[in-house]
Design a protein that fits this description.
It is built from six helices and ten strands, in the order E-H-E-E-H-E-E-E-H-E-H-E-E-H-H-E. With 271 residues, the protein is an alpha+beta fold. It folds into two domains: 98 residues, Alpha-Beta Plaits (2-Layer Sandwich); 159 residues, Alpha-Beta Plaits, CATH 3.30.70.660. Helix 1 crosses helix 2. The two termini are 22 Å apart.
């Protein structure tokens, strides 16, 4: 819809992804994008498909996801936010609704994103069991992890690299590109990581290990595959600097397992 026919909107939202089949709308599945589109139609009567900053997979959460859409309805931002929150499921909240420039696009305008991955540190003897109310939001492990080795491994991915080894195959990519071409697709699997670090447990959360990564873009399952590989380094199954070799191989089989979706949060998006 052309900008002159209405306002371009930027919606910032948070959600618990546990009960959704990811962001992207899918037939016969409940998704964040689908729920948001349905809520907008109930509020404004307009059938649109909000564009997100990126797809989060089944079970992945978001603290500050961003969506954009054009609406004809002359509704004040605070009223739109309030009305959407009244009709959306309680596990999806609109944190802010604001007008955006006509050329703003939630995905195409992204400069950087930050993800956080949460690891619950238990023990193989059952001590420090993960509380049941946290299991949907962490990856609970029972192995001893060497934080120093994981920190060093995390540093190996800083800078610009071809991240093919950490990218899952995306069967929907061709269809999605045909429907909504991404101008950044020419980058292939090359991405730049600005920061990559593990934050050690604190006195307040003595068993919670956080991994934070900020980059100009991320491939399908990339963060979860990085975390799975860093955990292998923490367990002593690979050397920390072996990550360089994994990057050079450009083969998914060279990297570690995919960490569970439950621990992953889209923390913020920058424009």
């Amino acid at each position: 819809m052309p900008a002159e026919n209405g306002n371009n909107w930027k919606l910032t939202l948070a959600y618990d992804g546990s009960d959704f089949h990811g962001w992207q709308i899918q037939p016969a599945h409940t998704t964040i994008q689908g729920e948001l589109a349905a809520a907008v139609e109930r509020v404004t009567g307009e059938r649109i498909l909000p564009q997100g900053s990126g797809r989060t997979d089944t079970g992945v959460h978001a603290r500050r996801q961003v969506a954009s859409c054009h609406l004809r309805a002359p509704i004040p931002p605070e009223n739109l936010q309030r009305a959407l929150n009244r009709t959306l499921p309680a596990t999806i909240r609109i944190l802010a609704a604001e007008h955006a420039p006509g050329d703003f696009h939630a995905r195409h305008s992204v400069v950087a994103k930050t993800y956080e991955y949460r690891i619950w540190l238990g023990t193989e003897h059952g001590e420090g069991l993960c509380p049941p109310w946290l299991t949907r939001y962490v990856h609970a492990v029972t192995w001893h992890l060497d934080l120093g080795r994981m920190q060093q491994a995390a540093k190996e991915v800083l800078g610009e690299h071809d991240f093919t080894s950490f990218a899952a195959s995306d069967p929907d990519l061709a269809a999605r590109q045909a429907e909504n071409p991404d101008p950044d697709a020419k980058r292939g699997n090359i991405r730049t990581i600005f920061s990559s670090e593990f934050l050690p447990p604190t006195a307040a959360d003595p068993r919670l290990l956080l991994y934070r990564v900020r980059g100009n873009g991320f491939l399908h399952h990339m963060v979860r595959n990085l975390v799975g590989t860093f955990i292998d380094a923490g367990r002593g199954q690979i050397a920390s600097d072996y990550v360089k070799h994994i990057l050079d191989r450009r083969a998914r089989s060279a990297a570690g397992p995919t960490a569970p979706a439950s621990g992953l949060f889209l923390d913020s998006v920058e424009y």
